[in-house]
Automatic annotation (TrEMBL), chain A:
Organism (species): Roseibium marinum
A GO molecular-function annotation: ATP binding
GO BP field: division septum assembly; negative regulation of cell division
Pfam families: CbiA
Binding-site residues for ATP, renumbered to this chain: 13-20
Residue ranges occupied by any CobQ/CobB/MinD/ParA nucleotide binding domain in the UniProt entry: 7-227
Listed name of the protein: Septum site-determining protein MinD
Keywords: ATP-binding, Cell cycle, Cell division, Nucleotide-binding, Septation
TrEMBL record, chain B:
InterPro entries assigned to the protein according to its UniProt record, in alphabetical order: CAP/MinC_C (IPR016098), MinC (IPR013033), MinC_C_sf (IPR036145), Septum_form_inhib_MinC_C (IPR005526)
Pfam assignment, any one: MinC_C
Protein name: Probable septum site-determining protein MinC
Start and end residues of each Septum formation inhibitor MinC C-terminal domain: 174-274
Protein family per UniProt: Belongs to the MinC family.
Keyword Ligase listed: no
Compositional bias segments (type: Low complexity): 124-140
Functional summary from the UniProt entry: Cell division inhibitor that blocks the formation of polar Z ring septums. Rapidly oscillates between the poles of the cell to destabilize FtsZ filaments that have formed before they mature into polar Z rings. Prevents FtsZ polymerization.
Gene encoding the protein: minC
Key words of the record: Cell cycle, Cell division, Septation
Region (Disordered): 79-170
Quaternary structure, from the entry: Interacts with MinD and FtsZ.
Length: 273, 278
């Protein structure tokens, strides 16, 4: 019997990398030996199953469980590579109204008993799906791109995390971690993006990692293997692994990706990041 | 002959079924503070409830029995009202919540309390009095404050001093955390101090001055209750809009040299004066 830490991965804006980050961090945690469950809250637009390569083994889903049509154990899908990593998929045929607050509470509470970490992939937006995903979380990972629109949406989400979650209603403060994704080294150099310092300054949330924009991530998503498993040595995978270790409480400095076109990199003509 | 416009703050009562329970709540307030409803303009808000006229009549009867005189009804077309009923009202905009009187000790605590105590007082007020609304013939407030009192994300830290008699006693509130995008701090009675930044998309509305110990990236509206002498201070000016007593300026019209520096903004000769704080 363990008592899991429930983490919500959220951002407000779509397309910033919530699902990719959920998969990468969940896998990295599992590789550390923890019992991990990734929960897809994006009912109606599920993707986490694809990114984790579990789409062909989904039988029951979150909505079935919330409605009592299936047990959690029936709905959990075990990862192909990591024995201690599970996915609770979202329903693709329903919409977010199918989720109820009580149902989500009971699912999360049950998951807490089986796992060490429960990572909830929040849908974009600030509506029901997103608020339910964060409702029972203990901690939050705020995913932002270094773009003004993304940062503002994150700011809005942080406001909600401090107002509408169970933790906040109990008068406590939810620990938050900022994960900057799709950081483009070249654009950063040219000054086309917000600097990481500015993002941290605007959001006033401690930085947990900076993940470079990378072909490895896209490739990993398309083959359905999280980047932290498929290509451990890619810069993105390293950034996620580092972020995960920081989530676990290790005190290591955040590496800001730099242009590291080594001789070898040039040789392969590929962009290292 | 001249017609004048004047705006007043009315208490808006929103009956919530079951009505007997709602009346119990009203009775509880009257028991605690017998004068609470006397000589106050009161609007009955039945918007969205599609209440049958007979039930409305019963409601009004119940209120009359308790000496609560309703001056208008919001949410029912005038043509549906029976003769003798108060006239139909519409429009109006939300202002801050009116605090329901509390037993003496608690009231003290609340009026001294900073932003943190706001959620309590809000729930107290919500049960019954709900929000005060300005029923105005001619709006004197800047149009900017429309519907700002309830940003869903934020705890809209609405703190009005308790005690039924006074709406304004110049109290100030202190917010000790960053004000996030989408949040709205409304304090029509006095100064607002924020220790932290005010994000893009957030807004502070104060009857008095606004002090921000951090970056102002959102909107700041000071002196909204008609106070020319209100000022806005911030450690870093990167605002979207600033306004004092209804006179406003958007970021595009700011003097570029004052961007990202500590600044104050004051009202002088019908213009906004921006000054760097050294």
């Amino acid at each position: 019997m363990s008592n899991a830490t429930v983490v919500v991965v959220t951002s407000g804006k779509g397309g910033v990398g919530k699902t990719t980050s959920t998969a990468a961090i969940a896998s990295a945690l599992a590789k550390e030996g923890y019992q991990v469950c990734a929960v897809d809250f994006d009912v109606g637009l599920r993707n986490l199953d694809l990114i984790m390569g579990a789409e062909r083994r989904v039988v029951f889903d979150l909505v079935n469980v919330v409605r009592g049509e299936a047990s959690i154990k029936q709905a959990l899908v075990r990862d192909k590579k990591l024995d201690n990593l599970f996915l609770l998929p979202a329903s693709q045929t329903r919409d977010k109204d199918a989720l109820t607050e009580e149902g989500v509470a009971s699912v999360i509470n049950e998951l807490r008993m089986y796992f060490d970490w429960v990572i909830c992939d929040s849908p974009a937006g600030i509506e029901r799906g997103a608020t339910l995903a964060m409702r029972y979380a203990d901690e939050a990972i705020i995913v932002s791109n270094p773009e003004v629109s993304s940062v503002r949406d994150c700011d809005r989400i942080i406001g909600l995390l401090d107002a509408k979650t169970k933790v906040a209603e109990d008068g406590n403060r939810m620990p938050k971690h900022l994960l900057i994704t799709r950081y483009d080294v070249e654009r950063a150099k040219a000054g086309d993006m917000l600097a990481t310092d500015d993002v941290v300054d605007i959001l006033s949330v401690p930085l947990i990692g900076v993940v470079p924009e990378s072909k490895d991530v896209l490739k990993a998503s398309n083959v359905g293997v999280p980047v932290t498993v498929s290509d451990e040595n890619s810069p993105a995978a390293k950034a996620y692994t580092e972020a995960t270790r920081r989530l676990l409480g290790e005190n290591i400095p955040v590496t800001i990706p730099e242009e590291k076109r080594s001789l070898l990199g040039k040789f392969f003509k590929g962009r290292a990041a | 002959m001249k017609f004048k416009g004047k705006s007043f703050i009315a208490i808006v009562l929103t009956p919530e079924p079951p009505f007997p329970d709602w009346f119990k709540e009203i009775d509880r307030i009257i028991a605690r503070s017998p004068g609470f409803f006397i000589d106050r303009p009161i609007i009955l808000d039945v918007r969205g409830s599609k209440i049958p006229i007979d039930e409305l009549e019963d409601l009004l009867g119940g209120l009359t029995q308790r000496s609560v005189r309703v001056m208008g009804i919001d949410g029912v077309a005038g043509t549906r009202l029976k003769p003798g009923m108060p006239p139909s009202f519409s429009g109006g905009r939300l202002t801050s919540d009116v605090d329901v009187p509390e037993p003496a000790g608690e009231a003290d605590r609340k009026s001294n309390g900073a932003a943190e105590t706001a959620p309590d007082s809000r729930t107290a007020a919500k049960g019954t009095g709900k929000a005060a609304k300005s029923a105005s013939a001619k709006a004197t407030e800047p149009s900017k404050i429309n519907g700002t009192s309830k940003g869903d994300g934020g705890e809209p830290v609405v703190e009005t001093p308790s005690g039924p008699a006074s709406f304004t006693d110049g109290s100030s509130i202190v917010i000790t955390e960053p004000v996030r995008s989408g949040q709205s701090i409304l304090h029509p009675d006095g100064d607002v101090t924020v220790i932290g930044s005010v994000s893009s998309g957030a807004e502070i509305i104060a009857g008095g001055s606004i002090h921000i110990y951090g970056a102002l990236r959102g909107r700041a509206l000071a002196g909204v209750s008609g106070k020319d002498s209100a000022r806005i201070f911030c450690s870093k000016l990167d605002a979207e809009l600033v306004s004092i007593n209804g006179l406003y300026k958007v970021a595009d019209d700011f003097d570029g040299t004052l961007r990202n520096v500590p600044a104050q903004i004051r009202f002088e000769n019908e213009t906004l004066v921006f000054e760097e704080l050294i």
